[in-house]
Amino acid sequence: MAKFLLLSAVLFDCGALGRESLCTSRSHAVPPGELSVGDHVYVHRTAYTYTHHGILVRGGPDSESARVVHFTGEPGTRRSMRDANVAETTLREFLGDKASDDDLRVAAYNCSRWNKLWKRSGTVYDLESVSPEETVSRARGKVGKMGGKYSLLFDNCEHFATWCKSGTAASEQRDGPIKKAAAVVVAAAVGGALSWMLTPSPEEGAKNRTETDRSHGERRS
Predict the structure, then answer these.
(1) What is the pTM of this model?
(2) What are the pLDDT digits (tens) for 104-139?
(3) Per-residue pLDDT tens for 4-62?
(4) Looking at the domain assignment, is residue 45 inside a domain?
């Protein structure tokens, strides 16, 4: 059991569990008035099939006054991916026509790989975040400079937001399902190996049974 716990800690970095409350929280919903400048915000689209991401660059009491920098390209929207660019808009425009302030979410950083494994892809990251000032500077520095560079697989709104927040461009929406499937395979392999290690061979089993029978015979005599 001790070996299993040690192996789990190595694989999933369990020691880092719960470093940030959002890493383990069931809900990432935050009202617009409680956001902090530099937050990585996101909103679910089309029955939770994907999420749109951005960086809060100015706070405010509501979505009309707060402002977000985001890569505007999204599949299935009026603004085609070909015309996508990094833009600064109101939080209301970022949320879109079909979303309300209640649909706004904040991504969590500095989380463990264990947190990321069990949460919805694109909501928690095991990346170290930079300061809010640097995050906002990076975001505003790209406004209007990414025209024609949007790529759903290699340079999307999530890549942009994670790069601003951590310096690493990542897309858990793209990579998360693959990583989670790999983790399941690894866990199954580890479980199989442990089972094999703990299961006695036929010879050992026969020897154990013989010793048990002998011990019982001595007790009866």
Answers:
(1) 0.69
(2) 999 999 998 887 777 777 789 999 999 999 999 999
(3) 443 444 344 433 333 347 888 877 899 999 999 999 999 998 877 889 999 999 999 99
(4) yes
pLDDT tens digits, 156-174:
999 999 999 999 999 987 6
Task: Using the Cα atoms of residue 179, residue 182, residue 186 and residue 187 in order, give the sign of their dihedral.
Answer: positive
Backbone angles phi, psi at 173, to 5 degrees: -60, -35
Instruction: Answer positive or negative: Cα dihedral of 52, 56, 62, 63.
Output: negative
SS3 content of the chain, % helix, strand, coil (to 5): 45, 15, 40
The reported pLDDT for the residue numbered 120 is: 75
In a domain, residue 147? The reply is: yes
Domain containing 94: what range?
17-171
Task: State the amino acid at position 145 in one-letter form.
Answer: K
Read off the tokens for 88. Answer: 């600064």
Residue 22's CATH number:
3.90.1720.10
Which residues of the chain form beta strands (DSSP E)? 40-45, 50-58, 67-71, 86-90, 105-106
Task: Assign 12 to helix, strand or coil.
Answer: helix
In 7-83 the beta strands, taken as DSSP E runs, fall at: 40-45, 50-58, 67-71
Do residues 89 and 105 lie in contact, with contact meaning Cβ atoms separated by under 8 Å?
A: no
- Is 145 buried (19+), middle (13-18) or exposed (0-12) by CB count in 10 A? exposed
Is 194 within the bounds of a domain?
no
Q: Is 67 domain-assigned?
A: yes
Domain count of the fold of the chain: 1
Please, what's the b/e burial string for 155-165 (b: 16 or more CB within 10 A of its CB; e: otherwise)? bbbbbbbbbbb
